[in-house]
Write a structure and sequence with these properties.
Blueprint (H helix, E strand, L loop, with lengths): L38 H9 L3 H4 L16 H4 L17 E6 L9 H8 E9 L6 E2 L2 E3 L3 E5 L15 E3 L7 E3 L4 E15 L4 E4 L2 E13 L4 E4 L2 E12 L3 E6 L2 E10 L3 E6 L6 E4 L2 E3 L12 E6 L6 E5 L2 E3 L3 E13 L2 E19 L2 E19 L2 E3 L3 E14 L1 E4 L8 E6 L2 E5 L8 E3 L6 H6 L18 H5 L4 E2 L5 E2 L13
Parallel strand pairs: 1-2, 2-5, 3-6, 4-7, 5-8, 6-8, 7-9, 8-10, 9-11, 10-12, 11-13, 12-14, 13-15, 14-16, 14-17, 15-18, 16-19, 17-20, 18-21, 19-21, 20-22, 21-22, 22-23, 23-24, 23-25, 24-26, 26-29
Antiparallel strand pairs: 27-28, 30-31
Length: about 500
């Protein structure tokens, strides 16, 4: 078992007489020593997940990344200012560009210079994709002609901006606000570059579709603000599709697919982050190599951040939500096709009115406090797992599971006749459900991925008749039918 792997990407751009290097870096934490276990412990680990190491991740660290690329290398003719003169800004309020079959001409990059601060750049989609790296040093809007709905693909032809190989689509310098809307952003050979990168910027992404293939995130924001709405992100990457490192993230009605992890968030100082109406679908990556696949990872910085996740679906990850030192509220969220639903390494988490389908454990806590109220757990081997430093306050939870947690014991009642009973769990407030798992819930969860219906409800042979007062069980839990005696008469003769 290895320690958590963290990847940190940094970027700074050259603008306005100040030389700021655009960089992208990766920090790999050395793998920890493999835990040595005795034979008995190895046998135990086969029946119960060993969270002893999983729930003690290393502290996230950050160091200055090496310089990898520079905008002047990409465009030597670009005017960055300097020598006492300000950088060049155009005077046009609205600039239109159509790459017109010559995608590498640099026309779309030159069009950025013509836009005055507060203006807009409109990209037409009539002549194919525009290829270029847009380096934004002034507030502006970048939009496609006529609008684009990323969920339906209507209002085509949609305008496309494609990044040059190994470079970003758009980078935004500190203190600049940019709105990107009604576009397709494509980075088919991104390498170590993110498609959209901001450093201390205010970035709004609305009605945009991403097609990203690379080693890093499709969207990376360091500090500042990141607002994503009505956006579809397809990211073929071994890291998270969205990384907000010290940035305040607001994401609504956004879908993420293809990436090993969904969102990695280190809350910043600009207010709480909010994730609403998201659909995160993992690549169902195995957990035996590489970084763990996590739907939403929330880490802490020096200050404690607050994050709310509401009315979302997170499916196909090893861990649905992982919390490391922050305060996270999860409400009306569906977590499915996971090994572990919610994992609290430290900090605080509140899970309410949600549904969790996991193979091993619903909520695991190493330290901190978890409040778990009014949820549904399905398919789990353990509903809760906690270490001594953690507190789990659970109330009014329901469980559908065919594992031992919902399997009764049998105690003698009369001669060789036994009755089923369930051991009370005063520290883990949940009740096992005996009916089938609701199919409508399934279709909203793993059924949405095209998987056939699977019923996790525990069924005990003859239990319906037994509750009606007929029959009993033997010591091995086999139902013995008897219609001659009913109710308490079956325990008397």
């Amino acid at each position: 078992m290895t320690s958590r792997t963290s990847r940190i990407l940094g970027l700074r751009t050259l603008l306005g007489g100040l030389t700021v290097a655009a960089v992208a870096g990766v920090v790999w934490l050395a793998q920890g020593d493999t835990a040595q276990a005795q034979t008995a412990a190895r046998i135990e680990s086969q029946t119960r997940p060993n969270f002893g190491l999983l729930l003690d991740p290393p502290v996230n660290s950050r160091r200055r990344a090496p310089r990898r690329y520079h905008y002047r290398d990409h465009r030597p003719d670009w005017d960055f200012g300097g020598n006492g003169r300000p950088p060049f800004h155009g005077g046009e309020q609205d600039v239109w560009v159509d790459c017109g079959g010559n995608p590498g001409s640099g026309a779309v990059e030159d069009a950025v210079r013509r836009v005055r601060p507060g203006g807009s750049l409109t990209i037409r989609g009539r002549g194919g994709a525009c290829v270029g790296w847009l380096n934004i040093d002034k507030p502006m809007t970048i939009q496609g002609e006529g609008g684009f709905d990323p969920r339906t693909g209507q209002r085509v032809p949609a305008a496309t901006l494609q990044a040059p190989d190994g470079l970003p689509c758009i980078s935004v310098s500190p203190g600049v606000r940019v709105e990107i809307r009604d576009l397709i952003l494509s980075s088919p050979k991104a390498g170590e570059a993110a498609c959209v990168v901001g450093d201390g910027a205010d970035i709004v992404i609305n009605r945009v579709a991403f097609a990203h293939v690379g080693e890093e995130a499709a969207i990376y924001a360091h500090d500042g603000r990141l607002d994503i709405r009505d956006t579809n992100i397809s990211a073929q990457t071994q890291t998270a599709a969205i990384v907000a490192d010290g940035a305040t993230l607001t994401a609504q009605s956004t879908t993420v697919s293809g990436a090993r992890s969904g969102i990695e968030l280190v809350p910043g100082a600009n207010g709480p982050s909010s994730l609403y109406g998201l659909v995160l679908t993992g690549s169902d990556s195995p957990n035996n190599f590489g970084p763990r696949a996590i739907g939403v990872t929330v880490r802490s910085r020096n200050e404690t951040g607050q994050v709310s996740i509401i009315n979302s679906r997170i499916c196909g990850y090893v861990e649905g939500v992982a919390v490391e030192g922050a305060s996270v509220s999860i409400n009306q969220v569906r977590i499915c096709k996971a090994d572990k639903g919610v994992v609290l390494y430290n900090g605080e988490v509140t899970l309410a009115d949600s549904r969790v389908r996991a193979r091993t454990v619903g909520v695991a806590a190493a330290s901190g406090r978890a409040v778990v109220t009014g949820n549904v757990f399905a398919g789990v081997r353990d509903v809760f797992f906690r270490e001594t430093r953690a507190i789990i306050d659970a109330r009014n939870n329901r469980v559908w599971s065919r594992n031992d947690i919902c399997r009764p014991s049998f105690r003698p009642r009369y001669r060789d006749r036994y009755e089923p009973y369930w051991q009370p769990r005063p520290d883990q407030d949940y009740s096992c459900q005996w009916g089938p798992y609701p199919q409508q819930w399934w279709y909203e969860e793993e059924g949405s991925l095209g998987l056939p219906y699977a019923d996790d409800g525990y069924r005990m042979d003859g239990y319906g008749d037994y509750q009606s007062g007929y029959g009993w069980y033997d010591r091995d839990g086999r139902y013995v039918e008897d219609r001659r005696r009913r109710g308490d008469d079956r325990w008397r003769r």
